[in-house]
Amino acid sequence: MSSELIKFGQGNEACAEGAFKAGARFYAGYPITPSSEIAEIASRRLPQLGGIYLQMEDELGSMAAIIGASASGVKSFTATSGPGFSLMQENLGVAIIGEVPCVVIDVQRSGPSTGLATKPAQADIMQARWGTHGDHAIVVLYPSTVQECFDLTVEAFNIAEMLRSPVILLTDEVVGHMREKFIIRDQVKVIDRKKPTGPVEKYLPYQPDEDGIPPMAAFGDKYRMRITSSTHGPDGFTNSNPVNARQMIERLYKKIMDRADEITYIKEYMVDDADILIVACGYTARVAKAAVKQLRNEGIKAGLFHPLTIWPFPEKQLKKAALDAEKILVPEMNLGQLVYEVERILKEKEVFGLHKSNGQPLFVREIVDKVKEVAK
Amino acid sequence: MSNDYQVIFSGEGGQGLVLAGTILAEAAAIFEGKYATQTVDYGIASRGGFAMSEVKISDEEIDCPELIEPDYIVALTEDAFNRFEKEAGKSVIIFDSDAFSPALEGDNIKGCPFTTTLRRLAEEYGNKARINVLAIGAVLGLKEIVSLQAMRKVFEKNFGAKNADINMKVLQAGIEMTRS
Amino acid sequence: MAFQVEDYLREDKLPHIWCAGCGHGITVRALVEALAGLQIDPTSVVVTTGIGCFGKADDYLNTHCFHGTHGRALAFATGIKVVKPELTVFALMGDGDSVTIGGNHLIHAARRNVDITAIVANNQNYGMTGGQLSATTPEGSRTTTSVYGTAEPEMDLCSLVAAAGASFVARGTVYHVTQLQKIIQDAIQHKGFSFVEVVTMCPTYFGRYNWNQTLIERMNWLKENAVSKARYDKLPPEKKESAFMIGKLVEKDTEDFNTKYQRILQKAQNQG
After folding, report:
1. What are C80-96's pLDDT values in tens digits?
2. CATH number 3.40.920.10 is the correct assignment for the domain at B5-178
3. What is the model's pTM?
4. Using a CB-CB distance cutoff of 8 angstroms, which residues of chain A are in contact with residue B65?
5. Chain B contacts of A361, Cβ < 8 Å?
6. Which of A5, B171, C4, C94 is deepest in the core (most CB within 10 A)?
7. Which residue numbers in chain C have pLDDT < 70?
């Protein structure tokens, strides 16, 4: 490994570098703390790579511009935080129903609303899942280290391209701003969207192959491309037939849910003999790992289940990890979001939450104390 | 755990404390091949207000960047000092004795003339002499947790060869403030 | 000629859904005539639309199409054009799309000067959804959400866009069809953001609540009140109340965004 590929930098920087490595050549965004470093890096690096950086008038426009660029065949992304993420929800829906691959990075900060702009939170876990209206499935990846910021951003693009769907890369202020050593990997697996191959006049932009995913032409190709935000038939024209509507909505849902295993990434630490299993993601997973070590030193059998793919939530994997655990603890930087999903999956277990929503991350001792309290 | 170090640089926005932490951690991570993390806590403005930067250096992979009982705390403002007063006894606290006089005293509370030293250095090097580098020096004067060779390399990488010389001199002045 | 008017149309989707007396069909006709006149390959054309009656226009066009959310057509178009400068990109919007919900995108598109042709069919109300109030509804007019007449003054689209820095601003009507087609051709050929307001009519809602005129009378009203800038300037003040200018209102040579961005790419790559 040549030394210039090893960097000491922020999670935000690693996200940006991961995007470039995955082939992203267009960024449109509106600066917002604590995500602005991604915009700053994109504005410097994309022109060097022959790509384009655009600062839009707001997050509605940012999301729209990346969808337009991606539909024109250029891998595109944006980055934001809670208030901007809320504005992006409108056109995130366009990317879902229009099946336009793109990556949206949300560096979570403390809310609601303006809240504490520079302080961390994990309070967009449900916004990432359900923020845009209407029935839909969505893929959300959540790194916990600077290296994972790089690796999972590459993966986010690959999943987006593979599924013809937007992918959300969720981070938090701590992960986004922390600095660590990371490697800008030279060789990464890069997936590109499937292109149409048949006769031009027979191309239908939303006619899926057997895998449920339609090949995607780009604007300017000889294939006439139609992207629409309306419920449509395979030809991309509005269609209000209930049979068609059901088929379209279900296909969009199933193309993601049926591949949940393929896109699921988890990390486990000492789960095999754990009496109490901690389920945590993002920065909190790192605090939880330190807590597990300390608890083990004190003779308490704790373990950590750490999903990197949080939506679709790794249901099967969690059930397996929690098989022998008596109790489950879900620490998170919010008043309770992930805990409800864990409760739903592990109905027969005793599930406890540890919730902190004051602009501070959870501390190791807080998780240690809570484990001891619930272990009694 | 003997080779694990935890350092806090604290004061107010604009003093370059984020950079102090970054430089120290980068020197360890890139130029000494160790593991290092740096995290920040700051307010909404680029200037003023409490700001701090936390550094963890280890021979092993770091599970969590959170500092548990930091070894060294540099507090450049009274507000910062007061926040960490309760750590006295566990951590060595280095403060700017030109800026304020804390009521608390003890072996582990070390006053250093940051402001006057910086003024003296500024006469020679102008605004290239920065309080954040002086702060790193003050920590290294107590314990060379990162080698001076690694510090020179990190200065060269980030500020260029010419400025690295000046920064090494500022660093040395910081080391002299605390070296007994 | 290589491309005929029919090459730009989805004739299988006709007849269109617009009401009798609506000017949208006339506007789409002017657009396809303009494209045929310029012999632009339909596969190098992208039409973006939003929500509203005129947002249905893409259904009848045999080009690449992007039918998106209400008010965002220009933002989608911006992303398309900056990465594919070789394409001819349109944003077809109504007054609701362009300036009522999408006003922020409109003024920034005018400022940014990306080479997009925006065509706004201004029918003074929200026709698709039942005739509600728009930002271009004249003060005092009745709509289904201003049943006592609106207290809000209307927005002058062309003045707004000109003030925001647009390098090509023109207004036409669905009565002055030959002129409209020429304006659209010039707008396409203009390098930079081009804005065309088409004053049209909605007999079904706005007309029914406000005109007190037949369709023929309203066409005559358009004919009489839409005047060139030279004629408008000479009108006595009382005539200026209902009259409005048509023709090219702003046309200046500017470098478009993509041309300028080429220099940024050069600079970045020389330094990088």
Report:
1. 999 999 999 999 999 99
2. yes
3. 0.96
4. 174, 178, 180, 286
5. 66
6. C94
7. 1, 272
